[in-house]
Amino acid sequence: MSVWTLYRVGSRNEAPGMTGSTHWVEHMLFKGGGKLAKGDIDRLISRIGGKFNGFTDKDWTMYYETVPAEHLETALFVEAERMRNAAFEPKEFDAERTVVISEREGSENQPEFLVEEELWGTAFHVHPYHWLPIGYKQDLEGMSRDSVYEWYRRWYAPNNALLILVGGFDPESAMGLIRTSFGPLAPERIPHGPRATEPIQSGERVSEIHKPGEVDYLEVGWKIPDWRHVDIAKLVILVGVLGGWRGFSLFASGGWTPRANRLYRGLVETKLASDARAGFELRLDPSLLSVSATLTRGVKHAELEKKLDAIVRKLKESPPSATEMGRARELVRAWNRYEVDGVTLQGFHIGQLEALGSRESFPQFLETVESVTPEDVREAAATYLVDSGRTTIRYHSEGAA
């Protein structure tokens, strides 16, 4: 069975000076505290043949243990202890500062990360989506142990958490164990979510990055509504037609690249790009639909962008064919089946949808996706793939031929 604990806190809740604090807390929760000594989580879960991990996102943070069903109590013990009792030992905290900064610096060696960070930082001027969960290096260098510990105590409480159990267990017995583990934990006064509302974008934004490298990259993002908006179902099929749908869950998407779509045919098969994809994240607040491409050596950004503009313009002017619509729907069906294959993926999927407030309505949402028409896709493209809401990031590799 799989046990997931989700906290309603992510980089969306942070502020300048504290960016990356949620991710740092995630690291510290594997360092012991209360009845858990350093290394105990690994020993407790590994010795029973289980696996575990944690993830920090823009809108939430999740931890999980997938264990034999008879060891549910062990997983609950781990999660209850670190919910309120993480130690944040000063020496461990200082050592972990080096780790999170090294993680940040390692990411900076990847052009894709730099492009992604620049995209969100350029597209969002006010909303906390402006920064990524890893945070800014200067904030990671300056944050104190006490400030990060206070952040942990503020958000890590039973009244700000979701507990998801998936697999072979008896509900009545499980509830008894849950009450024993979590019942004594005191609630916290949880702060409100971010009050910053992103102003309406009124024109295209462009940013250029010049760094050493072997190839050039392009990423374009368009503003789209939050997950609850009626047009999201249309955008799912739009992405399927444009770049091939790759699932609702970043946790499960892997590295598979669909080929029967307009981006692949228009950019990759024409040798303008070696890779091209489209997608969007499930977000509590208005977000981005993005297209990214790795330029073929020798191809200029202007040439690739001209072709991309033509692909987008055609989608805005003419509805997709019945074949394209059928293929997009089948991709959504296939990925939805894959994303609930096994108790671990099921736990993540349920937690993500619950955090977004859409778990119970998700089957109805899938029915809405199935009912999207070609004209719906054209209208969505005409509404959202517009220059007034567009952000373009060009990565120029110094040294690329």
Commentary on this structure:
With 401 residues, the chain is of the alpha+beta class. It folds into two domains: 181 residues, Metalloenzyme, LuxS/M16 peptidase-like (Cytochrome Bc1 Complex, Chain A, domain 1); 194 residues, Metalloenzyme, LuxS/M16 peptidase-like (Cytochrome Bc1 Complex, Chain A, domain 1, 2-Layer Sandwich). The protein has 15 helices and nine strands. The strands form two sheets. It has a five-stranded mixed β-sheet with strand order 5-9-6-8-7, sandwiched between helices. A four-stranded antiparallel β-sheet has the order 2-3-1-4, sandwiched between helices. Strand 7 and strand 8 form a beta hairpin. Helix 1 crosses helix 7 and helix 9 crosses helix 15.
* Major sheet description: 5 strands, mixed
**Overall shape:** globular
In percent, how helical is the residue content? 40-55%
Count, helices: 15
* Structural class designation: alpha+beta
Cα(first) to Cα(last) distance is: 52 Å
Strand content: 15-25%
